Fold these 3 entries.
Entry 1:
Amino acid sequence: MKGDRVEVVVDTGGDVQTFEIVATRAGRRVDISVSRGVVEVSELTRGGTPVRTGRFMASRIIAMVEYPAGEPEAGTDVRPGAAS
């Protein structure tokens, strides 16, 4: 669903890097699959065709967070009239 996103934090040796895969258009979704020590995060069309894919070694992943569409981002206040 448009707006779904997955954030992956990966250990790159001496540093940490964050990657984000987002369902950018209506009808697209984000899919996660794990096989043989590799985690694959893909943005798919309605028909299942991959548009964008990120592959990560499972042993290097520090954190993986799924954000469903419609939920506000962390640190944002969505109450009406709330001060920013």
Note: Strands lie at 5-11, 16-22, 29-35, 38-44, 50-57, 61-67.
Entry 2:
Amino acid sequence: MEELFNQAKEFMSQNPHYGYLVGSIVLFIFSVGNFKKWNWAVSPSGYSQRWWYNFLGEKYFSTIMGILFSIGAIACFLGFYLSN
């Protein structure tokens, strides 16, 4: 298992632009989770998120967070595409 982590670390150090691709995939998963209103994605964990959740309601909070995560995913994908 340690050898696998070392190989992944070596690959990422030689190809750092793939970090954009990984970030894009993670942000895309979070955006889908927010649009589908899955509990693990919509449930606010911090004080400020909880405040926005109570202020906006679940529908608008999940929509806005989904849009923000989508913008981040697109930006990361563009970073990956433009760094090649």
Note: Residues 17-83 form one domain.
Entry 3:
Amino acid sequence: MAADFPRDLAEKVEARTISYGAALSLRFLMEQDRRIVCAFLEELRPSSSLMKEFAELILDISKREGLAAAEIIAGLKDIMTVRQSRKIKTEKVRRALRARRFPSLTEKEKELKAASLALSLPANVSLHYPENMEGKKVSLTIRFENMAELQQSLDEIKKKTERLNEFLEIL
């Protein structure tokens, strides 16, 4: 219920400019920080779920690094000032906040992406690693129209066994 929120935040939830999920995290910020983060989110206008994710990440970073939320938002200024679509800005903000909040995870994701590209798998073969690096199981998808195409893909994968092992070792 919005009644549990500070008045300024309750008004934004009621006006639907700030999602309820985001407000659950934002209520813990000092008024000035809350105002700055709300203005940032209102300008960016992400989906409700992304708004909640951003608010949680900002709160976590603030606690972990001992910074005011306004300082975290200031670090995103470059993304916001570049003339780009809202979708691109939102994705860049998400990547920046996740990289700051989960530096080891994002580094591991970059390493896996580079290893995946180094495999040079055929266009009809895709490799998927576990989301958030939870677990060690990967999936390999092969799209084909006939048995010859499937066999060709399997032969190509077999040639890359050593590189696939290197990829799995990263996990």
Note: The chain is about 65% helix and 5% strand.
